[in-house]
Design a protein that fits this description.
binds adenosine-5'-diphosphate, six-stranded antiparallel sheet, binds magnesium ion, alpha+beta, binds flavin mononucleotide
Length: about 220
């Protein structure tokens, strides 16, 4: 059960991700149990756990923050707005908060990787208030998703109620946002012209999809 104590406003070192982060995960967006939107009002894009199992077997279950990009080639035409300009073929890097594990509140028997994509950091946060609204985009099932995990927030817990789970995820969104707003993390989203080779490589990886070339556009 969740410990009854206040949450830290940020997670991870201010100087930037420390090993094993950044962790790269990819996969097509698949169907989950259909609870994210329906029960919680918080959509999560689920990707298969295979990449995690094969390439990062030691990554513990829990809640993490990071950045994502969606393949513009496989986004349905009407969903072009996710990547900004409808006609654009470039992928936008967006902030994200995610859960890896068995969702103890629901007692799942299979491990899931679920990503909630947040609005650009330049927009006001819809979860900074007691009555939050969570970011909702047009559905993008089947789209290839690249995820760069930049830090760990907390373990997964069971909760006394659905409301308590939703409130903790609301706080996760705020912790992720505040963590990503730090200079060393923001450069994964926006190229300020001063990024290191490593960050540049990660940004390139994020926005490159199978046959495509790197197309980076900031937010
Ligand atoms: C940031 C974040 C934190 C979460 N933390 C927990 C948690 O501590 N315990 C839990 O049981 N589920 C947690 N979840 C998972 C939700 O229960 C999950 O999103 C929901 O069951 C939807 O699943 P679905 O995609 O299969 O529909 C979290 C989800 C997110 C996005
Ligand atoms: N902000 C968002 N973050 C993640 N997925 C979103 C978002 N907005 C809309 N979606 C869509 O909603 C779907 C997830 O909804 P959810 O209720 O969790 O269903 P499922 O159980 O199938 O994962 C995603 O696969 C995606 O197509
Ligand atoms: Mg989901």
């Amino acid at each position: 059960m969740r410990p009854d104590k206040p949450r830290d406003p940020v997670a991870g070192p201010d100087a930037g991700p420390e090993p094993p982060y950044p962790v790269r995960l990819s996969g097509p967006v698949i169907k989950g149990f259909g609870r994210g939107s329906k029960d919680l009002g918080i959509p999560t894009a689920n990707i298969p756990a295979d990449d995690l199992t094969e390439n990062h077997p030691d990554l513990t279950s829990g809640v993490y923050y990071g950045v994502v990009a969606l393949d513009p080639k496989t986004l349905a035409h009407e969903n072009g707005s996710i990547n900004g300009d409808e006609k654009s073929s470039s992928a936008t890097i967006l902030p994200a908060v995610l859960s890896i594990g068995y969702n103890p509140f629901y007692k799942n028997t299979v491990r899931s990787v679920e990503i909630h994509i947040m609005p650009p950091l330049t927009q006001p946060s819809p979860t900074a208030v007691a009555q939050p609204t969570f970011n909702r985009l047009p559905d993008f099932y089947g789209t290839q998703l690249n995820l760069l995990i930049l830090g760990y927030i907390r373990p997964e817990y069971d909760y006394v109620s659905l409301e308590a789970l939703i409130e903790d995820i609301r706080i996760d969104c705020e912790v992720a946002r505040q963590s990503l707003l730090r200079k060393a993390y923001q450069q994964y989203i926006v190229d300020d012209g001063n990024v290191s080779d490593n960050v540049n490589e990660d940004r390139k990886w994020l926005t490159t999809f199978d046959s495509g070339s790197a197309n980076i556009s900031g937010i």
